[in-house]
Each structure stands twice: as C-alpha cells, then as structure tokens.
Amino acid sequence: MKQIIYSYRLALFGLLLAFFTQSCAKDKNGDRLLFSIDQDIALGEQVAHTVDSTYRAKGQLIERNNARYAPAYQNLDLIVKRILNSGQVAYKDEFKWDTKIIKDDKTLNAFATPGGHIYVFSGLIKYLDNEDQFAGVLGHEIAHADKRHTTKQLQTQYGINILLAVVLGENQGALTQIATSLTGLKFGRDAEREADDFSVIYLSGTDYACNGAAGFFQKMEAENQGGAVPEFFSTHPNPGNRIQAINDKAQQQGCKTTPSGSGSFAQLKNNLNQ
Q1: CB of 160 closer than 8 Å to CB of 130
Q2: What does the UniProt cofactor note say (predicted)?
Q3: Do the beta carbons of residue 204 and residue 257 sit within 8 Å?
Q4: Most buried in the list 30, 84, 115, 159, measured by CB within 10 Å?
Q5: CA distance 107 to 126
Q6: CA 187, CA 153: separation in Å to the nearest integer?
Q7: What is the tens place of the pLDDT at every residue in 92-108?
Q8: Which residue numbers in the chain have pLDDT < 50?
Q9: How confident is the model at residue 4, as a pLDDT?
Q10: What are phi and psi of 176, to 5 degrees?
Q11: How many whole angstroms separate alpha carbon 157 and alpha carbon 168?
C-alpha cells in the first residue's frame, strides 16, 4: 500500500514539475497555460471515452462502425477535414479531431473536449439550413479546443490538482463529473468572441462562406424571440451583437461570404433522417 501511495505521489510530482516547467513557455496561441499540450491530449482522451460510454449507455451515441450511418460520418469527416486543412488551426496535427454525433433531435447543441474531440447533437444538424452554417458552428467548436478554452474553463472550475489526478487515472469521480458537465460548460464572453472570430478565420481558408456562423445565430435569434433559450445559447453566451461582429470580422478578413453550394451536409442530413 505504501508503495502504491509513493508511486502515485512520484507520478504527481512529475506532472507538477512538468507543469511548472512548461507553464513558463507560451503555447502556439501565445498563452501560458498550467496544462501542457500532452496533458490536454491525455485529459481529452479520458473525457471522450467517458462521454462515449455515457451516451452509449443511453443508446444515443451514433457509432462510427454502424454501417447505417457510415455515409453520414463520411460527409461529416469531409466537412471537418476542409476546416482543418484551412491552414489556420494551430493544433491541427497534435489533436485527434474526431467528431461524433449524439442522437437527440430535441437538442440544439455541440461541445468540444480538450484535445479536439467534438460532439454534435442530431437536433442541431437537422436544424441548420446549409453546409456553410454547419461549417461555421464546427469552426466555433474547433476554436474552443484549438484555443484551449475548454481546458482553461475546466482548470478554473476544478483546479489543477484535480485535473492532474484525472490525467493520472486517480479520480474517476471527477472524470465522470467533467464528462457529464461538458454539455453545460459555460464559457466567458471573451472566449465566445474569440471562438466566433476564429470560426471566420478558419473558414476564410476554405470554399465556405467565412461568416457561416452568422447565419446560424441569425436563425436562432429570429426563431427564439421571447421563447425558451436554446441549449447552444445557454452554454455559449452571447458576447454582444455576435452576428454583426462575425460579419465585421469577415469584412476585415476580406474572405468570401457567398454560400459554397457543397452538398455534403445535405447528404449528412438525409442519412440521419433515414
């Protein structure tokens, strides 16, 4: 028993030493984070595994090896790949960037774990009008992972010691709590503004309308005047006039704002509706 405790403390000391060493250096975003990129990846893998298990137990995780939904994932991966290949995603090669669909037609939401695991609810996919809007939303979620907003928020909420213990596999309770809280994890307005900005920046390197996210927010605001706040707005607070800000960012970038006309998203929606 003493040997186990000693080994755990030694491993924790190693992580803390790495943390203090790496926190002195800036990451690719110019930030000094308490977590290293490797720790982001390790935490993300554990959280994603727990998220998968949770929604799998509910019968809501659309599995990638399900032949019925293979065309949906082929089209989803194609859209994600276009964004990642824009040349603007800082951690394109380090993070896994796997995207999964949760079957819940009543939920208009998406979320990202550390390390680039993205989850999209079927309700959001079916709600959107075109691929450019969807690419805008994906760009927003990719930015949350790429700019390490999720890690920063978890670090604030749980503290560095708990997160390091989760990375070590020593706090299953905290891991479960983190995984189940991600759908309701609320970012600050600065993080939301940056995610909106980088959605434009990412899409500026593609054939998509770089202000695609603006169309999504415009639709949501128009259809929810005075009504219940959609899940996406409750977890992604409005940093101001985000529609105008996205369009202003697109003008500043000088990127195209005409729809791409790509049919990948329509095929994705059709497959989910079958």
Answers
A1: no
A2: Binds 1 zinc ion per subunit.
A3: no
A4: 115
A5: 10
A6: 7
A7: 999 999 999 999 999 99
A8: 2, 4-8, 10-13, 17, 19-21
A9: 46
A10: -60, -40
A11: 19
Which alpha helices (DSSP H) does 23-121 contain, by range?
37-57, 70-84
Q: For residue 177, which amino acid is it?
A: Q
3-state DSSP percent of the chain in helix, strand and coil, to 5: 60, 5, 35
- 163 — phi, psi (to 5°)? -65, -40
Domain count for the chain, please give it: 1
CA distance 240 to 249: 14
From residue 158, how far is each of 124, 175, 178, 187, 250 by CA, in Å? 29, 11, 9, 14, 36
Helix 37-57 vs helix 172-181: angle between axes, to the nearest 10 degrees? Answer: 80
Q: What is the pLDDT at residue 6?
A: 47
Between the alpha carbon of residue 23 and those of residues 40, 152, 161, the distances in Å are: 13, 13, 15
The residue segments making up the domain with residue 116 are 2-273
